[in-house]
């Protein structure tokens, strides 16, 4: 997996921000790489994050997609919030690990468009796409290019 896009300064800023969010602490999302309009996140699924068939709850998949898209936008635009996002579910997520890879599609002055692909990862590391998300992210602060504060 090529994570050469990752920037340690941006990663640290996102990790600090995530620690201030109760939801991020509860969910257990882990940042793998961030920088240059890209983010990779993963989440180890717990039983309390599944639905009645034992699949990962769609809300957890959506939250991972939302976070990945907004953090990808933050790598180029600084402080951001999600304006809207849509998720298309392709298959049930039924593994213990989910991976999200998000990329900025286009950056404007007030909004950033981003896409996330979400994968169920099995014990052998094989990935199966389970969802795709598109998001419109609104900028609210100073740019984080090269390092958020």
SSE string: HHEEHEEEE
Summed over residues and divided by their number, the pLDDT gives a mean of 92
How much helical structure, as a percent, in the residues? 25-40%
Query: First CA to last CA: what distance?
Result: 28 Å
DSSP summary: helix tally: 3
Unreliable segments of 5+ consecutive residues: 143-149
How would you portray this structure in words?
With 149 residues, the chain is an alpha+beta fold. The protein is 26% helix and 39% strand. It has helices at residues 8-19, 22-27, 58-77, and strands spanning 30-35, 38-44, 80-89, 97-107, 111-121, 127-139. A hairpin with a 3-residue loop joins β4 (97-107) and β5 (111-121). The longest helix is centred in the middle third of the chain and has 20 residues, at 58-77.
Properties at a glance:
disordered C terminus, 149 residues, six-stranded antiparallel beta sheet, alpha+beta, 3 helices, globular, 6 strands, 39% strand
Compile the SSE list and pairings.
Layout: H1 8-19, H2 22-27, E1 30-35, E2 38-44, H3 58-77, E3 80-89, E4 97-107, E5 111-121, E6 127-139
Antiparallel strand pairs: 1-2, 2-4, 3-6, 4-5, 5-6
């Amino acid at each position: 997996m090529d994570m050469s896009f990752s920037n340690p300064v941006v990663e640290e800023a996102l990790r600090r921000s995530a620690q201030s969010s109760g939801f991020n602490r509860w969910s257990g999302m882990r940042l793998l790489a961030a920088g240059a309009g890209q983010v990779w996140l993963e989440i180890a699924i717990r039983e309390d994050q599944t639905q009645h068939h034992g699949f990962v709850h769609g809300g957890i998949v959506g939250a991972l997609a939302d976070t990945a898209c907004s953090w990808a936008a933050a790598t180029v635009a600084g402080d951001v919030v999600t304006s809207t996002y849509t998720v298309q579910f392709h298959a049930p997520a039924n593994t213990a690990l989910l991976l999200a890879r998000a990329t900025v599609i286009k950056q404007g002055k007030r909004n950033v468009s981003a896409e996330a692909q979400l994968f169920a990862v099995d014990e052998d590391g094989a990935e199966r796409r389970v969802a795709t998300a598109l998001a419109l992210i609104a900028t609210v602060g100073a740019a984080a290019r090269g390092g958020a504060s």
